Amino acid sequence: MSFSIANLLSQHRTDKFDLHEHYLNAQMVRVLKTIGYDRNYQRAVGQYLYDENDNEYLDLLSGFGVYAFGRNHPTIINALKEVLSLEMPDLVQLDVSILSGLLAKEILTTTPDNLERVFFCNSGTEAVEAAIKFARYATKRNRIICCDHAYHGLTMGALSLNGEQIFRDGFGPLLLDCGSVPFNDLAALDKALCNRDVAAFVVEPIQGKGVNIPSDDYLPEVERLCKKYGTLFVADEIQTGLGRTGKFWAIEHWNVKPDMICMAKALSGGFVPVGAVAMTQQIMDSVFNRMDRAVVHGSTFSKNNMAMAAGLACLEVVRTEKLVENSAIIGADIINRLNALTGQFEFLKEARGKGSMIAIEFKSPSSLSLKAAWVMLEAANKGLFCQMITIPLFKEHRILTQVAGHGMNVVKLLPPLILTQKDRDHIISAFTKTIADTHQVPGSIWELGKNLASHALKAKQAKSS
After folding, report:
1. In 121-178, where does DSSP find H-type helix?
2. 190 three-class SS
3. Which residues pair with 51 in a beta bridge?
4. If you compute the radius of gyration of the chain from its CA atoms, what whole number of angstroms results?
5. Is the pTM of this model over 0.85?
6. Helix (H, G, I), strand (E, B) or coil at 279
7. Based on CB atoms within 10 Å of each CB, which residue in 44, 69, 191, 209 is the most buried?
8. Domain segments of the chain as ranges
């Protein structure tokens, strides 16, 4: 009998949680079962997931932004099928590939005109690692500066730039000479750079953890300060790039020209891991400055034909389906309609974002009964209120969302850039109903809150014992 993935899936249709409990991360399975997210998804099309009973779920996370163009996009699938059918030579290591050259050329048509070279890798964290190495070599400086609450990846170099302590705890000492400054604080950045010992300032144009948007003068001044002190300005567009924010690159909102742009996630449409760094020719030439240094940095699987073909197909999809423009329309509609509810609900502080990178933030209410309930949750675990939003959205409305970061009362949406008007109406209706339910104290949703608080307190006790 020939090998068949379809047969394997059929034989093990309901085994995925058991397999993960026995052979992978059992704690992840425990989390999913505790919060009721343990579904057996069977197929995915565009912005929708379907479980074994053919129930439809609207995925507003899109694989943390990977599926910006929807799952299983036919244009990208056809490109990958074509690569397989052509029997092309691949990863001939003493050679260069045509597809990587074509993809690099296409990427550079989208970036600021000071960027003229591309380095390919396999993921976002690898792109950040490459940017760190290139910056240190090009400037002959060691120190790297990032922002508080930043997220740049989980490998050891990128982890050194991670502003969320929970990801760093227990993995130190970290390897790099790094420092951090508050996001959107130019005085702090000036102070950090003025000694002229910083190789690079690595910053997300919009912070993913919390969807924090800078003031209009921030990134232009970042560019100026970096030039003044000889520091390279590295824009981490791994999550914000390729149309996510209503511009092809988020830096376009502020008309800045970084020395490097890190990209990944949506670049392959979710099919094949791929990352890249676009940079100035000066940076590229400083690292690969002699023939004997042609291989001083690389990655075995980077520039593979499947990844490069997927990237080329994705750029075609963005152009032909006008997804940058669509992202701006989708985001403005959702944000404006949610903000229209702030006068109706005490818990709702604001919706914010750019394009289809959206945050819904909640706050302490003024009514005594609501405030007491809020304080109860915050005492158990800061940011727990948002679980009372995301869990009912999933269980009752079949909408997949996430809390935007640890210890914050922000729900984050990273929807595919193809949402229909029906999808957007469903989102507003579901949020309205769920937020309204939180204002009913006591009520069934607060029974969920008590259970969440109980689990949080037990976790704290276990950690301290």
Report:
1. 124-139, 156-159, 165-168
2. helix
3. 41
4. 23
5. yes
6. strand
7. 69
8. 74-320
